[in-house]
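Before any further analysis, backbone shapes were mapped to integers, which produced the following:

***
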Amino acid sequence: MTLPPFTKHYETPERAAGAARHYRWIKEHAKPLRQPALHEIAPASLTFERVEGRSVRPEDLPRMAELLGHAHGAAWRSDLQSASLGTPHQFNDGTPFDDYLGTREIALWRRHEQGYLPNKAALYAMLRLLEETAQGPLAFYKDSNPRNFIITAAGDIVTVDTDDLSLAPMGYDLGKLIATLHLTYGPLTDQAVNTALCAYNTAAGCYGSRLGATNRGRLDDFLALHAVLTAPYVGRNGYRWPLRSHFRGTP
């Protein structure tokens, strides 16, 4: 039986065009990520092949980490070797590819205004941490939360939702996956996190020796940043377990 297609609607034509642009970039430069076929681009919607399956669970983390390592390594080799974490990159059509620092500096200031960072000292600590993590080979961030991957009955992993895409250090989006698995299912064990990091580094290292060098301290830095950046979403989208105080560096 042929499944009916899935249409995602966007608030503006610009958001729809951006998601389509991100989809094409991933298809060209991050080939290890399998995506559903994109059937139609309308002014404010995208229509995709429908994929049935479930979201990512904690037991899928090692396999997901390996997949992200291959995707990030492939993208670095294909398009990101000359990019800078503090400067917007360029898509083929000349549209800016959001940088790592600028967008997150704005987001951290917003979290302070919203009350998730209690004072200026906490804000400045997070801004310093962000600056410290802006080094090393580049990867990309696509918001790797458990809902943005579908695991089919056959065991295939399909990547969905390309609304967000920006530059990021190696390991940052792995941190997002670990953080959101924690938010959804509760704290992960140190062994589970370390196993995932090892799988990620081994896969990324296939594309260059410098790519598989994310250590646990740096991953914990990313987790501390994600704890602040995702704080407004606790209690929504299945996020039931707050991250605050569980990872080093979290205010």
Q: What stands out?
A: The mean pLDDT is 93. The radius of gyration is 18 Å.
